[in-house]
Design goal:
NADH Oxidase
Length: 220
């Protein structure tokens, strides 16, 4: 039986699928059937040459989630000081300060509680991306998993679940591979998506910079 969906138009779904951290419900279980339903939709996404070299590692085991949370927290300690962290990425734009403070607070919270999130979904793709010498080939590999992962996140939002695209655990990808039995030499992990029902479903479009200076027609 299909799980009930929120009353959202296509545009509402696309504009309100937020990176959810503080509003993840850490107590409510997530049924395997709803995860599978979202994954079935994810696998309808396009993939390069129709290779379908994707894999999704779904982690529900409490001890394994706790260990992934530890790896993530360890990575977050270094991330906070990086130029690309939420705290620093818009350092030259005072208008973004308040927004980035909220994002960093939210990210810090996730680092504290990731191990308690009821489901971790790790999208993977066949091959080791760092072994591919050409940018076009690397783009093709990532392009064969990212649309599916985003479709999964949209499907989850439609069913009242929250997600967040995270990559910090990849600083310790090999340890995560050993923990989960992923063949490291053959499979690239691309992200870790925490999955939980949300506390409330009333998400709104996020603040974004104006299109001027970002959209380029015919010439940069």
């Amino acid at each position: 039986m299909a799980h009930p969906q929120l009353d959202l138009s296509n545009d509402q779904l696309l504009s309100t699928t937020r990176a959810v951290r503080k509003r993840l419900d850490l107590e409510r279980p997530v049924e395997r059937s709803v995860v599978d339903e979202c994954l079935e939709l994810a696998l309808q996404a396009p993939t390069g040459s129709n290779a379908q070299g994707w894999h999704f590692m779904v982690v529900t085991d409490e001890a394994k989630r706790r260990r992934l949370g530890e790896l993530y927290a360890k990575a977050f300690e270094g991330y906070a000081a990086m130029p690309q962290s939420a705290a620093n990425v818009h350092a030259d734009d005072p208008s973004m300060e308040a927004t980035q403070e909220r994002v960093m607070s939210s990210a810090s919270y996730l680092a504290e509680v990731l191990g308690q999130v009821p489901v971790h979904v790790i999208p993977c793709v066949a091959g080791r991306v760092e072994n591919v010498p050409m940018v076009i080939a690397q783009a093709s590999i990532y392009g064969s998993i990212l649309p599916a992962a985003w479709s999964f996140m949209l499907a989850a939002r439609a069913r009242g679940l929250g997600t967040c695209w995270t990559t910090l655990h990849l600083m310790h990808e090999k340890e995560a591979a050993e923990l989960l039995g992923i063949p490291f030499d053959e499979i690239t992990q691309c992200a870790l998506i925490p999955l939980a029902y949300t506390k409330g479903t009333d998400f709104k479009p996020g603040p974004r910079k104006a299109m001027d200076g970002i959209i380029h027609y015919d010439q940069w």
